[in-house]
Amino acid sequence: MAQSELHNIEKDLLKRIIGHLLKNVTVRVCSMISQVDRYCRNGALQARLDLLACLLLFRNNMTFKCRKTMEDTLHSIPTNDISAEDEAMIGMLLDKFKIAEQCAAVLFRLHSRGRQNISVRDRGETVLGGGDPRRRYQTQGSSLLSNSA
């Protein structure tokens, strides 16, 4: 009983700490971006990608105010020089980022459950949770393709 109470308190404390950190990071990042007078094309692309990645990464832990601040800052970045091809590239990079984030979350959950028997084979094939053929994934470059067993 005491252990479960401690676990609940730990979760609440962690959420408050993460929320406080995100608030401070949001204020700093948005302040720095808003101080820029003029963006070159690559600078605007990088700023947009960074803010979108932060919104994606911290989506579950952000308060409404932090999210609104980041979105407002994102909309303040000029998009005049950004083409549809550039937007497609940003979308592709964010998709790869999302896949990497999901893989990291799965590996973290497996590790926190005590499953440390994650093996990597020579052909780039990774088996999660010990040799279960239903859990095989093959990586090629940055994309993740699921093998049906």
Explain what you see.
This protein is α+β, with helices and mostly antiparallel strands and 149 residues long. It is 62% helix and 9% strand. The chain has 4 helices and 4 strands. It has helices at 2-34, 41-57, 64-76, 84-112, and strands at residues 119-120, 125-127, 136-140, 143-146. A 4-stranded antiparallel β-sheet has the order 1-2-3-4, with no helix packed on it. A hairpin with a 2-residue loop joins strand 3 (136-140) and strand 4 (143-146). The radius of gyration is 20 Å and the shape is flat. The termini are far apart.
Determine the number of helices (DSSP H or I, runs of at least 4 residues).
4
Helix content: 55-70%
Low-confidence stretches: 120-149
- CA radius of gyration is 20 Å
Trace the largest sheet across and list its strands: 1-2-3-4
Shape: flat
In this structure, how is the largest beta sheet organized? 4 strands, antiparallel
Structural class: alpha+beta
Percent range for β-strand residues: 5-15%
Total beta strand runs: 4
- Helices and strands, in order, run as HHHHEEEE
End-to-end separation in angstroms reads 42 Å
> What's the average pLDDT?
75
